[in-house]
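Predict structure. Chain length: 235.
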Amino acid sequence: MLAIYKRELRSYFVGVIGYVFLVIYLTIAGVLFSYTTMFSMSADVTNYFTLMLVFSAIALPLLTMKSFSEERKTKTEQLILTAPVSLPAMVFGKFLASYTVFGGATLLTSLYFLFLIPYAKLKFAVLFGNLIALLLVGMVFIAIGIFVSALTENQLSAAIGTIAIILAFLGIGLINSLIPTSYAIRYVFDALSIFTRFQSFVNGYFEFASVIYYLSVSAIFLWLTIRVYDRRRFG
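Prediction complete.
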């Protein structure tokens, strides 16, 4: 797995995708940070992280779209399938490489909050809660992107498909807000909603159940990716 991880991580910066992602991610994060804190004269970070959640739904598919699609397009997929490495190790190595780039970019954006320290009293519990929530949600988005990338050799299709699935998960929360509380289906949507669970972290509360949810959804999509290649290897 380590060899796959190093290979994938290196590929982001041998080409331009890694640099483009970092520039776009850090720039948009800076703009959103300035708009929600500096220009608004506020030390409340919740709006920033909520907007970053929405932005990540669009940005992360651009990071994951090449994961498996590029292998199929360049006809190197068979080399991986016949390599002496397990399918879980291959999938998890690619996942970790994408997550390392995203996690590194997210941690870099957290440095922006140093600008607020001289002017406002930050609520560090809320700040860390939001940061952890964004990292957890990013984990889910990347796992979804890895799965969709395994289904097609077209990188654009992989990105669009990933965005569609992510927006569906986010849309559950919006639909849920329109359903009367007396309807039982509301509780089902509430349990499935990425955005609803994100809100508990936004308010500075650490919910173990939400952590399990994000880890479970990520694991499901990674398992589905393994199943795709399991069938392709022996199909």
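Summary: The chain has one domain: 2-234.
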